[in-house]
Design brief:
mainly alpha, membrane, transmembrane, transmembrane helix, 12 helices
Amino acid sequence: MSTQPPPPLPLDFSAVLSESKRIINAHSRHFLALSVLFLLPLSFSVTVFSTIHNLLLHHHSGHRPKSLLSRPPPLLPSLAQLNSQSSDQFNFPRRHHHHHHHDDDDLQLPIETLALVACFALFFFVFTILAIGSISYSVLHGFYGRPVKFVSAIKSGLTSFFRLFITHIVVELLLSLVALLFLCSFYFVIKGLDLVCLEIDTDSPYFLALAVVYSVVLLAVLLYFKVNWSISSVIVVAESSWGVPALRRSGYLVKGMRRAVLYFFLSFGLISGILTWTSSIATAKLGGDALGGSQGWNSWFFVAQIVVTSALLTLILLYFFAAQTVLYMYCKAVRGELASEIAQEFAREYVCLPFDDEKVPHLVSVVYT
């Protein structure tokens, strides 16, 4: 009579990190090279983004330092109205003041800001996809004890780029569709209340309460889908499945462990978020002093702060991508898919010998401990 294997243990965050650390330490030079090639530019761009934005603001304000004085104060619109009314009353010809150069200056800053954000988003998106493809491939090979080669990892990042790109686009489109449905639902609810003579002003507390409820529900729904699709990028690299099938596969693997997976991703997100937030504040302050012409320890501390933050963020991203791949392997183990793969992996290194007792093959079963 066959006995059922014991149920798997709950997801252990420390065990996932420990396995990730073991794989990274076993191939430290390999992962260091991948980090310098893909993750360090990502971390550096995130760290200096606020500084570049402040530099644009400083450069723009330096061209017209008295632009605020050339405009009427926003708190005194009645003066302009009185001037217009008096001109109409006495039939004075109006003067058309040409402020096209001010309008051009006003438009220049938003265009530069939008261009900066677009370039940053494209750079971040491309390097993130390349990092996921190469690091996930390397961790998978390190998990099975296969040789990890730098050229093969780069090739994996390039060959899986299109599949990862399509999968990320599908995720963003689906999440945007969910958000759009919530916004339309909120709009129709407000219009429905207006039809039944329950007009709600945008300044009323009822409107604010309804908006908060919709926002909380929308955030919960988006988090639910993000958790379900959390390991889809690893599935694209490991199983060559992309698009909607990869999302379905991810939802199947994380089923029953959504709370643990949510805790896993929130932990990394909170750590990286706090680091990025503190870095942006310090960089904006020290960068402003540097742009203002201050010398001394502030400039050196500004450079050191960027270097240290970029290094820490690179390390966090490396462990995040590695732990995400290990999490995928754990989900497969829970579903009973990992034991057969490990048996097939190690069966290549052994010779099958016949036994005397009617030559019945002996099977090895992998159980959870």
